[in-house]
Amino acid sequence: MSHFLDRLKFMSRVVSTFSEGHGEVVNEDRQWENAYRSRWQHDKVVRSTHGVNCTGSCSWKIYVKNGLITWETQQTDYPRTRPDLPNHEPRGCPRGASYSWYVYSAQRVKYPMMRGRLMKMWREARKTMDPISAWESISQDPAKARHYKSVRGLGGFVRADWDTSMEIIAAANAYTIGKFGPDRVIGFSPIPAMSMVSYAAGSRYLSLIGGVCLSFYDWYCDLPPASPQVWGEQTDVAESADWYNSTYLMVWGSNVPQTRTPDAHFYTEVRYKGTKTVAVSSDFGEMVKFGDIWLAPKQGTDAALAMAMGHVILKEFHLSGKSDYFRDYARQYTDMPLLVMLKERDGKLVPDHFLRASNLDNALGQDNNPEWKTLLIDELTGELVVPNGSIGLRWGEESAESGGKAGRWNLELKDAANGQAIVPRLSLANAYDAVADVAFPYFGGEHDDVLLRRVPVRKLSLADGATALVATVYDLQMANYGVDAGLGGPNVAADYDDDVPYTPAWQEKHTTVPRERVIQVAREFAQNAHDTHGKSMVIVGAGLNHWYHMDMAYRGIINMLVMCGCVGQSGGGWAHYVGQEKLRPQTGWAPLAFGLDWSRPPRQMNGTSFFYAHSNQWRHEQLAVNEVLAPTGNHASYEKLSLIDLNAKSERMGWLPSAPQLETNPLDIVAQAEAQGVDPITYTVDGLKSGKLNMSCDDPDNPANFPRNLFVWRSNLLGSSGKGHEYLLKYLLGTQNAVFSDENDAIKPSEVRFRKEAGEGKLDLLTVLDFRMSTTCLYGDIVLPTATWYEKDDLNTSDMHPFIHPLSEAVQPLWESKTDWEIYKLLAQKFSEIGGPHLGVRKDIVLTPLMHDTPGELGQPFEPKDWKHGECELIPGKTAPSMTVVQRDYRDIYRKFTSVGPLLDKLGNGGKGINWNTEHEVKELGGINKRVLEPGVSQGRPRLDTAIDAAEMILTFAPETNGHVSLKAWRALSKITGRDHDHLALGREHDKIRFRDIQAQPRKIISSPTWSGVESEEVSYNAGYTNVHELIPWRTLTGRQQFYQDHRWMLDFGEGFCVYKPAVDTKTVKPMLNRYSNGEHELVLNWITPHQKWGIHSTYSDNLRMLTLSRGGPHVWISETEAKQAGLVDNDWVEVFNINGVVTARLVVSQRVPVGMCLMYHAQEKIVNVPGAQTSGKRGGIHNSVTRAVLKPTHMIGGYAQQAYGFNYYGTVGSNRDEFVVLRKMTKIDWLEGPLEQEATNEGAVK
């Protein structure tokens, strides 16, 4: 019956009553009940996940009915854990449960979109020109270029078609390669682990054409530099299930319940079995509620807190000899017994380099790499010995089969010269020749900046006849912490109440944490580790790692763990969680992602240095090098140098990569060399020495050195991660911005050229791929619609659990969207059509830094010398970047993109310094994916037509997903260590994980030597486990965990040992105070940007469900005290600004925020509910609008064992928490809804 008739008969619907009138029988229509009856009647349920850079990596059920995605619920079929451990499920959070809203929302990018002005000019040009000429006519005409660049971010999109979009992008790429060089074509995409094939699609295309892939882990400031420094490992951590094995758990700057929601149950459950938990957080975060103790240090002082705890541990558990376990662990697994030379500087003795075999007569019989072999004293004989494990024993040692001595790169306590057992001496306290006053730098104020402390030393005769003083790291460490080791003297503490750096009393002045609490926690932490042999754990996160001196806070915490023998023990160690960094099948993925099956090496660039240079943030630098130099350092070496000078120095010495690499097109360089009959590498070396050729990094504002084309996919670069957001807008994009900083007030470089006119609008083309209209999309020139995570096939892993599982195509990509794989495949095809005839076959010279986990990391062993200053010869791969000539046939990009190349047959595969044969896997993949039948370079090769084909390549070649490969990889490592590791793979030798397997159920990965833990039913995954239990060295100079860092720059900047360094002064607030006064009180606050509750980075924050649950737009938090002081109340509109830019937001007033802090949960985009700012007259920005990247010189070090470059492994990082801002109430709310009145580049910025 119709609804209308139902309404008319409403009053007569009752047929009868019962229960004395309390019940009634009605005859109304009940069809509405069918909606509930059929709710769970679906056509299919498909397994997928969310590729959102979330460590949760949760598997979800996607429900499809009548061809439509209806909703999602959590999967609950993860492989079980052992009986004494909770299962990993349920996994998920409200953010993931809201994702299906995006699929059919107005936020969805449904069709290719293009900037209208660009489209109009393109159509006009194409009437008379071929695509490449058409692109040249637009991009190289200043007026035309300014016409479309100046309105980036201001709307004006029109719908385009796929063919036109691909034609423009391909033409732009081909023109740029021919005119400027392939290294001017750049790509940025983060975190491959969240959708491996989607990342690989873009990076494979870029690598095949010779383009550049930018790193992200460092740019996001998720990379903890302390991890490479101490362990030679990018980041390896315990899975979350191992929290349950801990018996003392500290959560330090990681808001586990809020940002690790799927894993938080392990944190709460472990408390029920008696584990004590300590929360360390400056604000009252969610994790504090679960802590037995809350320590609330002032933000940025965590290193001081950790150093004070270390002081207690050293004094009570090491110096007293209380723990034999700690002593034995220190002897075998740390650098504590190794000897360090002392050197006189400015009349004081300072720690210098580790003593090396090459320092002694006849190099102690070590003829291979004696400069890279460290020494200790054997207690049994009293003699100097080279112990097994140092990096000099890793490279260049011929195999035993060929008469060599390979097989000594292990942590067996043996003399490398003769294999005799040794007992390393930790301290010279009872066997010294003298007691020396050693100088240690101090940065905390209130005390002398050089602290003299007494250390027992030995005298040695060196090979050159000189006499040297040496001390053990153990004794120097005691002195550095201010522990009186019985030698007395100044600057050491007799009592914890002494105000001596690094006592509990001293830290109280810096952190405000009561000394009693510090002593209590340190004792409990160490006592528990002693009793349980290492089951004390610290969970850490971005709360600490986003400070400029983040490595000091991290090394302070790591020192505690290593002192207590926790690293490598189940239930113990360091657990750093940030983004979804763990790409478990990395060695199977890398050949696909970087085209290593067709050509090597690829071009890869450190993202932080790239954006710092090309968004001209260096032109606004306020931090001088001498402000961060140590009082004990060699200041003369850095005189007049700025941070950009040091970065350029690092690039030309091969420490960091560069992009673009050379001012001259690298294709032209090879052509010129061959035309003259000269070897291209010799030609390049001679050209650099003579000045005929120049590195691009020496002149970033030369148009020849501009990056020209930028791809952004799987990322919201301009709405989330872009430090110095306004500088990116001004210099890279050439559009409206709110940069208040004046270049004339900044520090000028002395070696990098400072041009009077800065380059603006450097990018000719910004191409963005996304499924939603993000902030980055708004600034794009071409926006391509990608499939959502429920419309594509892909792979996903995390460090939080040991499983690999898929993204799956529940429905086909909607509207005109395509998967990332299909988009880049289409582009490769169009590029081959357009760029192939234009470019043909060309030879390219590729510069590669001295890479970690290769022999190249044995660069300059002592004092670094710069070839440009005539201090040494320019030797590629030693004192300068490695150089390789790569032939590229631009006609075959599509054929190579869609097939597996022959280099895997010829050269095999590998990772992290080991290599194995893969001929069998290539043949096997040919059977799985079938082979190319079409004639051409790819004929007969395994196919890569679809995303599933690409996934099968990853799964086939990775030891983590193919048991046969795992066994080969362990055997390859055994040849270097001399130890049998087969048992780690034999149990799963015949396991082969395929894509359809993981669609049925997540699969646990297989143990691999490229990681430091094991997958086992006996222990949960824990980093460092194989180092401790299999005696595999850490990939460091010493082969051990290093308290001491002896590179010259580390020493000059005062970071040989861990110290406390306060936040740096970025000098961004004072010029803005009362500069644009609106009559309201101005507060100066520290700017803190933690991860939010209503989004994963920027995703979900514009989702209607999350907007409904949250405040519905950008908001910032301050304390009640300061709100009252400034006359502010909750929900007021405020603007937050400094010389970098301005943010507009609602105010949250809260008791949980301490005085002095302004907290803005990061990645709240400016596309929802953001008014104009009164200071700039433009719409408010994002959290990074008030930040600017500031580089740290010690992160530029390279070619030095563990301090060598690796993609996302080591390099400069994008810190932002030292920043201060001005906050005030807004008196006028302007939504800027009028028409565009001004086309602005720098003219639009507030002066």
Task: Provide structural commentary.
By secondary structure, the protein is α/β, with parallel strands linked by helices. The chain is 27% helix and 16% strand. The protein folds into six domains: 3-103, ADC-like domains (N-terminal domain of TfIIb); 113-222 and 587-637 and 710-841, Nitrate reductase alpha subunit (Rossmann fold, 3-Layer(aba) Sandwich); 226-321 and 498-577, 3-Layer(aba) Sandwich (Dimethylsulfoxide Reductase, domain 2); 332-489 and 1040-1052, no CATH class; 890-1018, AF1104-like (Up-down Bundle), CATH 1.20.1700; 1070-1187 and 1217-1244, Barwin-like endoglucanases (Beta Barrel). The protein has 38 helices and 38 strands. The strands form ten sheets. Strands 7-6-25-24-23-8-9-22 form an eight-stranded mixed β-sheet. Strands 34-36-35-38-33-37 form a six-stranded mixed β-sheet. Strand 15 (376-377) and strand 16 (384-385) form a beta hairpin. The model is unreliable at 1240-1247 (pLDDT under 50). It is found in: Cell membrane. InterPro entries: Asp_de-COase-like_dom_sf, MopB_CT_Nitrate-R-NarG-like, MoPterin_dinucl-bd_dom, Mopterin_OxRdtase, Mopterin_OxRdtase_4Fe-4S_dom, MopterinOxRdtase_cofactor_BS, NarG, Nitr_red_alph_N. Its main location: membrane. Keywords: 4Fe-4S, Cell membrane, Electron transport, Iron, Iron-sulfur, Membrane, Metal-binding, Molybdenum, Nitrate assimilation, Oxidoreductase, Transport.
